[in-house]
Design brief:
Length: about 260
């Protein structure tokens, strides 16, 4: 076998392996409230299948715009139902892949060294010592929309809105409070229970009756180049094991997942 033929075989082998590996990986655009939970889900999926999930976090609204403009994601995990439904209506999702996977919750969170009494719930935001309140931008972040709705229902919104520090997504909103850029924040319960936050502060849940349900859905996108792996991951998300992971981060999955 001459050197040229050996070289050609080697090149073809590398190309085959590269293509095979590419088919073993999917890229997911995930709402920022899923930052720790989805990391755990992806790790378990990789352990069980050997396939890799690349996660990119951000606000659901920004991802919605990016996907409409052709962003190369395989799946989209939104923090609401509206954006996946709109993508479905526009023919940008694979038929039959729309899935309502969980319902999120919001909390008021402060660092451990804060003296703020959270027992009065959202009315604690009226405390004069509070100078800055971190909230996700309600223009494109579902958790920000929920926070604004809750404050309006409790009649505190107009009294505190000038103190808002707006995060691009709920993860950045939490970071504002952790870093001291804000005194208090309204963040996702899933983040308050995450390894990065659970030992660094305390929180009070905002009653779910105070804001519209933060129902969350995912879809496989027609632009996906690895639809088979994406569909396999979708089936995995529907398992009891994943439902248990989501519940451990405070998500309500009753009636949506693990059917």
């Amino acid at each position: 076998m001459n050197a040229r033929r050996v070289s050609l075989i080697a090149v073809l082998a590398v190309a085959f392996v590269s293509r095979l590996c590419a088919g073993q990986e999917i890229t997911i655009a995930a709402a920022a409230d899923l930052q720790s939970a989805m990391q755990d889900v992806a790790a378990r999926f990789h352990h069980e299948t050997g396939k890799t999930v690349k996660l990119i976090y951000g606000s659901s609204g920004n991802f919605f715009q990016q996907i409409q403009n052709g962003a190369p994601f395989d799946m989209f995990f939104s923090a609401n139902l509206e954006y996946p439904k709109k993508l479905e209506a526009a023919g940008l999702t694979e038929p039959g892949t729309y899935y309502h996977y969980a319902k999120g919750k919001i909390v008021i969170w402060v660092p451990n060294d804060s003296k703020l009494d959270l027992s009065s719930g959202l009315h604690s935001l009226l405390e004069p010592s509070i100078k800055k309140i971190a909230v996700a931008n309600p223009q494109h972040a579902p958790y920000g929309q929920a926070a604004v709705a809750a404050m309006q229902k409790e009649n505190v919104y107009d009294k505190v809105k000038d103190k808002f520090v707006l995060g691009e997504n709920i993860s950045q909103t939490a970071l504002f409070v952790i870093s001291g850029s804000a005194d208090v924040g309204i963040v996702a319960l899933s983040l308050a229970l995450s390894p990065n936050m659970k030992d660094r502060g305390r929180y009070a849940e905002v009653p779910v009756s105070e804001y519209p349900p933060i129902e969350q859905a995912c879809v496989v996108l027609t632009s996906s180049k690895n639809k088979e792996t994406a569909r396999q991951f979708l089936l995995f998300v529907k398992t009891v094991a994943v439902a248990d992971i989501l519940r451990s981060y405070g998500f309500d999955v009753q009636g949506s997942a693990a059917k």
